[in-house]
Amino acid sequence: MFCYEVTAAVEDRLRAEFEDYMLAKHIAEVLETGCFVRARFSRSGDNYSTAYIAHDMAEIDRYLENFTQAMRDDFMVHFPAGIELSRSIYEE
After folding, report:
1. SS3 of 80, please?
2. pTM above 0.70, yes or no
3. Which domain holds residue 38?
């Protein structure tokens, strides 16, 4: 299994809105692409981690090529500032 993980450092004033957006909208939309089999969402202090799990690297590549830009554009509409993101890919 492979993991595409997005870590978000979220300003205090945006925490509730960010959590709602991720849990009610964004994670479900990413899973609906069919590229991932499940997701994990967690918080540690000011940082949140969303790990999207795929069967193989080809599925992550498909997500990155076909869906990433639209997902990032939507995220920026909701959060133009106040959240710093980093991304990583690794094998579990």
Report:
1. coil
2. yes
3. 2-91
